[in-house]
Amino acid sequence: LDLDTAKEELEEFIPHVREMSDSSIRKMAGRDLTRFKDFKKQGIAIKFGRFSQKENDQIRKNVKEFLSLTGIENAEKLLFTSRYPEEKETINRLKAEFLFCGKIAEGIPRPWRLIYYRARKIFDPNNYKGRYTKEEKEKLKKYYAIHGNDWKKISEMMSRSNLSVAMKYSEIKSINYGPWTKEETQKLMHAVEDVIRKRSKLEAEKSSSEKSRRNLSIDREKLYQKLPWTEIETKVGTRYWRQCKQKWNSILTSKMTKGQELYKGTKGLQAKINLIKRLYEMKVEDANEVNWEELSNAIGDVPRAYVQAKFYKLKVSCVPLWQRKTFPEIIDYLYDEKLPELEEKL
């Protein structure tokens, strides 16, 4: 396909495709477009966001089958071939011969690039090494001073994954962990406003509506969904991205609820009861299948992140050994054991 046709056809599945680089669009047209069309015929929508347990299991299955098909020794050699320079040529030949790109993405309605990154995260032995020691943090700062954002090089030097070292540096470079100052809060609000306005102006220009250009209105969902937190972190300067996200959600919750305490006293008990009942009625197999937006009115007019945080606190404090339970088992326990207790207390 020529580039314009590729953009046009991909836009049905990836609304923001025109914001991507030409090389990324070409790769996506080659790796994903046929897959996307096949999923559409089956009535399956293309997904983004966090991977479900079912998708993670499918990735593991795809990798296992590809290793069996090619005789490549293990997932690390398959997904981190550059770590094995003496075998690199042979492994790359086998990957090309047995259509690695298509095989690893089988049965998963997502862009190939996201599936590949997820597979690398699952199978990287350097990705699960526990907390960073004080010495490691000092090394990370020193390596960053020398190599900048070359996370691949730094990850090799520290025997940690690319993602791990990048995220940890983002966290430790900001020394402020205390209460937010008024100045920091203002910086955060201006940073969020900047990125939302930029995005909305682009959309307004695409729609070529003079009215929408003159009077820029923001859908409420855009205030808390898929914001570029690393960009916002840079603008704030003194906090890392997760702190920015948590603070912004607390600001939004306060504004949307006009400062009311929705999760205390009898209101809090009723909110927990409503949340458990609604989750039980949904009968979903994975937390990623929950429509948290729809659930928000079980507590009140709040952002989805607020509801997710309250559910997390509920399962951690009420469900014994919750880490070993499936999502349906957690919901069943809350419904059978915790709900009667909450209703009696109310």
Key traits:
single chain, 346 residues, mainly alpha, Arc Repressor Mutant, subunit A, 4 domains, globular, chromatin binding, TTF1 factor, SANT/Myb, TTF1-like, Homeodomain-like_sf
Question: How does this model look, in words?
Answer:
This protein is mostly helical and 346 residues long. The protein folds into 4 domains: 3-123, no CATH class; 134-173, Arc Repressor Mutant, subunit A, CATH 1.10.10; 182-206 and 215-257, no CATH class; 265-345, no CATH class. It is 64% helix and 0% strand. The chain contains 19 helices and no strands. Helix 9 runs antiparallel to helix 10 and helix 14 (229-236) packs across helix 15. The chain is globular and about 65 Å long. Residues 124-169, 172-252 form the Myb-like domain. It comes from Nothocercus julius.
Number of discrete helical segments: 19
Proportion of helical residues: 55-70%
Question: Mind describing the biggest β-sheet?
Answer: none
Inertia-based shape:
globular
Total number of distinct structural domains: 4
Domain Myb-like: 124-169, 172-252
GO biological process, one term: termination of RNA polymerase I transcription
Protein name: TTF1 factor
GO cellular component, one term: nucleolus
List the helices and strands and how they pair.
Layout: H1 3-11, H2 22-31, H3 33-41, H4 53-70, H5 75-79, H6 88-97, H7 100-104, H8 112-123, H9 134-147, H10 151-158, H11 162-172, H12 182-207, H13 210-214, H14 229-236, H15 241-256, H16 265-282, H17 292-295, H18 304-318, H19 327-345
Helix pairs in contact: 1-2, 4-8, 9-10, 9-11, 10-11, 12-14, 14-15, 16-19
GO molecular function: chromatin binding
Pfam families: Myb_DNA-bind_6
GO biological process, one term: termination of RNA polymerase I transcription
